[in-house]
């Protein structure tokens, strides 16, 4: 249908009315037709090497997908935004989804057609899996979910086609929809749940281990496990969810695969995922929830891996004939570990925490602070930008959870910091923060990413009611208030030229100092 200039000038409400009329009068018939034709095609021995037959099947699948992807209630403003949304199928379509043969059709098609077409089938299944919950009553939904899970199980048992990146990506999206649209309490009641969750866990672990394959798809797998883990405290079903068995496997696979990737990336000159801080942060946000499930196992693993890498790193630094490559590998591994430790500490906000878990956080924090002391002592000779950015990410999470007015100072974390590092109270911990901030501004003044994140940390610290009053009493803060010149902080007068990022850094710096000064004067 050609869109004329007159059509294009219609107001949005008119377009919406036309779309609604089309939905009510014709769309279901078109969807039914596409399904019937697909059934006919699947019943015949099609020669998909024949371009015309291949093209016909592709157009049929696109037609079905477009029907399912229709903006049924006129709320979709951004078609590019994924994901985890609900498909608002009209009630008049109920019959098609109550009939299990519709779902079965697409699963059968997936197994019978080549990888050039099967991603389209999976895209249709993603939409079908996302049908609004209210289309069914409880019994109907349970039956529909059971068929859906059976289909997923069959794909996992015959994973050959998933070696195709497009199939793999769409299948990961399908798995994510299992939890976005259904509750854990519903999933555990599905007959094959124990077997399916085992298969999904194995698939996830294998996917994470092959970190170089389809990295963008990992988001959906981590999203699934994040949602599953977050649901554990609320599930009321008596059937076992088995997440205490499989979640630690996923956590371990993510952590170990990232560490193992470091050497290969450096050796082969590959693109480093750590360069994409947005992607790393997104994955860490997901891992923060996953890792908090069975936290004892997560901590034990992190302590073990951190101690190994830190010891190797220290030995390499003390050795006179260690190679730069070996040092870079250990720094890369420690960078990942510091990021991950920050993330799992930040994940405390998602779960009711116990004293034992706070003590475990203390073990992790002590190790990062000890590493920081080591790396800071070497900054005059050499530093690692990525490791410093990881440290700042860690400090930000640590600040959110353990610094401020809402934190119990009797926390076992503080007890552990006192025993190991002699940091007896929040004031002493704040002095570590300020020490790190001043060190970064001194040595990394010409590195804009580190400078801006360091100043953001200072800015965040200057906002808290109780912490800011403790900060102004520290000699290091008094030094900053009295010596805020480029002589001490090079970023303030970089090349005597002002670019935009320098100006932003200065603004953040003086905003924070202004807050501290106001408190200082008020005191």
Reconstruct the topology from this structure:
Layout: H1 5-8, H2 12-43, H3 51-68, H4 94-98, H5 100-112, H6 118-129, H7 138-157, H8 165-180, H9 184-187, H10 193-209, H11 218-231, H12 243-268, H13 277-292, H14 295-318, H15 324-346, H16 355-377, H17 385-402, H18 412-421, H19 426-443, H20 448-461, H21 465-471, H22 475-482, H23 500-522
Helix pairs in contact: 2-3, 2-5, 3-6, 5-6, 5-7, 6-8, 7-10, 8-11, 10-12, 11-13, 12-14, 12-15, 13-15, 14-15, 14-16, 15-17, 16-18, 17-20, 19-20, 20-23
Care to give the gist of this entry?
By secondary structure, this protein is an all-alpha fold.
Provide structural commentary.
The chain is an all-alpha fold and 523 residues long. Helix content is 70%, strand content 0%. The protein is built from 23 helices and no strands. The chain has helices spanning 5-8, 12-43, 51-68, 94-98, 100-112, 118-129, 138-157, 165-180, 184-187, 193-209, 218-231, 243-268, 277-292, 295-318, 324-346, 355-377, 385-402, 412-421, 426-443, 448-461, 465-471, 475-482, 500-522. Helix 2 packs across helix 5 (100-112) and helix 19 packs antiparallel against helix 20 (448-461). The radius of gyration is 28 Å and the shape is elongated. The model is unreliable at 1-6 (pLDDT under 50).
